[in-house]
């Protein structure tokens, strides 16, 4: 079973190490000592990640969609072409780049600094093991 340090858990959760420590101290997820390091078991961290994502979405209006992979973030770049556009979103530690029509970008009012959610539905998803 894979285990993570508090620092690694913080990076995976997209929060500061201090926040991860506070969550562990509040027993939001279990930790154990390995020498001087606090460790989180992979299954426990995975369960907490799901819980934290659900909490983050509570209270927000969720659109009706079949795309289940949602990455809320902030627009960090917009490149407009004559017909097409490229939009870049930073969603926690994830950089997502999408190509869409210029018309769609204008209708959505996408500009640098705007909140946006990238939704992904794909039949081809590649997964690398770290």
Structural class: alpha+beta
Question: Could you list the spans in which at least 5 consecutive residues all have pLDDT below 50?
Answer: none
Gross morphology is: elongated
Distance between the termini: 14 Å
Radius of gyration: 18 Å
Number of strands: 7
Question: How many individual helices?
Answer: 4
- Oligomer description: single chain
The share of residues in helices is 25-40%
Average pLDDT score = 86
Strand order of the largest sheet: 6-5-4-7
Query: From N to C, what is the helix and strand string?
Result: EHHEEHEEEHE
Q: DSSP strand (E) fraction? A: 25-35%
Largest sheet: 4 strands, antiparallel
Spell out the key features of this protein.
7 strands, 31% helix, alpha+beta, three-stranded antiparallel beta sheet, four-stranded antiparallel beta sheet, single chain, 130 residues
What would a concise description of this structure say?
By secondary structure, the protein is of the alpha+beta class.
Q: Can you give a write-up of this model?
A:
This protein has 130 residues and is of the alpha+beta class. It is built from 4 helices and 7 strands. The chain has a 4-stranded antiparallel beta sheet. A 3-stranded antiparallel beta sheet has the order 1-3-2. A hairpin with a 3-residue loop joins strand 4 (69-80) and strand 5. The longest helix has 16 residues, at 42-57. The two termini are 14 Å apart.
């Amino acid at each position: 079973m894979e285990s993570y340090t508090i620092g690694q858990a913080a990076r995976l959760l997209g929060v500061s190490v201090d926040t991860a420590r506070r969550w562990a101290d509040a027993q939001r997820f279990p930790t154990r000592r390995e020498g001087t390091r606090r460790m989180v078991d992979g299954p426990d961290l995975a369960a907490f990640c799901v819980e934290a994502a659900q909490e983050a979405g509570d209270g927000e209006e969720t659109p009706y969609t079949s795309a289940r992979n949602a990455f809320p973030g902030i627009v960090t770049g917009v490149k407009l072409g004559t017909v097409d556009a490229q939009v870049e979103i930073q969603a926690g530690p994830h950089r997502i780049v999408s190509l869409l029509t210029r018309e769609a970008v204008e209708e959505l009012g996408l500009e640098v600094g705007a909140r946006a959610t990238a939704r992904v539905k794909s039949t081809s998803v590649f997964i690398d093991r770290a």
